[in-house]
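Researcher: Predict the fold of COP9 signalosome complex subunit 3.
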Amino acid sequence: MAHSEAGPSNAAHPAFPSVAPRAPQNIQLPSSPAHFWKQVMDARTPQLLADLAALLNVLAPPTDSPREAARDLLLLDGIDLTGIPDAQIPALTLGLVYILTERLPRRTRAATENLDLALRVCVNGNPKQFALAPTRVAEFAWAVLRAAQKAKETTRVIGPLQHLLRLSSNNSQFNGVHAAFLETCLSLRAIDLGYQSLSIQYSNVIPYTNILDVLTYYHHAGTVAAASGDFARATELLIFGATIPGETPSAIRMACAKRAILCELLSTGLLAPFPRDLSQVMTRSIEKGMDPYKKLAAAFEKRLWDQVTDAVSNDNAVSTFARDCNGGLVSQIMGSIPKRRILDLRKTYSRLSLDDLVSKVQAPAEAVKAAIQDMVFRGEIRATIDGTPEIVTFVDDDDYASPKQMAKLMQANILAQNVNNDLLYANRAMLLNRKLLQKRMDKIENKDKRGPTEPLKSRGEFEMPDDVGQVRGAGSNYADMGF
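Model: Structure tokens for COP9 signalosome complex subunit 3 follow.
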């Protein structure tokens, strides 16, 4: 019996051929800004759009700054763009992104009109055209934010940048738009909006992505998570930012490391788990440049509360924490001491009177009750306070089927699936180089003294392990993943 449907391994029709851009040497530069604008306006077919993308890539390459002649073309001096209606923006998205990125930093009489047009591009832009120039879109996002800050109209850009982030997201690949959006959220104290955006999981980066955008994202994302009270997530993000490979310990990496130490104290009360394979340059910087943070963390981990107080009250520590803008986190750490004492007592007692708990915690009764209620509200412990006199009862069994736990499990499953897909892709890529695998296998065999190696299996004959869905090695620690 014949089946009309295509089988699982056969597509219903072959994929459409992609339009190949012209080679750079075959691209003819426009003779004038008017000619260039006409080419942008006429790019309505896939071939013309591909030609325009190739031209723009020559005028403003992602790896270098545009030359002065190219800047003159991209600025389109003498051409008014303010009359472009919203309906035409999707067809002109690619050209407008390049043009406005050059125009926005310039102080001109039309600065307000350029910002208005840029905000309309963020909202009405074509996602397919955004995908043709992801690095330029990131520059465009930063240009929009800086122009709004100069005009003291930052509140206007948070909504459009959120639209731009949604429109430019591409297959879990990171670009700098998210970093610009998080900086906007921090500057406007829109913490909840920024925290919601952290649900986007990135497993790769777009080629030619600016390393500063990546560092800025992890620093700002960790700061947003800390401001939202999710100190475990903040620690993970900040450690990732601090351990991104680099030749020098930049200021933003050091800021990530310092805040990671403080957030880990608020999360677990322990020292931050920096990976063992951290670069020597960064390790030396952490050892030498963060003495107040290390003293505070060491005393807090050992529950030496008097030393904790001394570590944050001396003049050097006070000035250091204030200069690093970490005074708020330090204050929260000092305020969490009753909480840590309660958690330590919970390991020993399952039930005791509130008066006994107050005497052991050495804090006012209202502060102890408030700390217990806050931990119960956050889901950190399960406890009840009832009776006369009041009795505190700690419940050991966790509600594993609660909506909060189910949401965490779903998020972990999504992340694990993304990592699993990356590992499978890497496995397929490595199978293409049989000589490399043979060489590695020979080294392993010779080291273990197992005798001669077996012939390398052909592609497709490799057996998949039973635990293929599990994460092994460095990938099991998300803070230890590079890009």
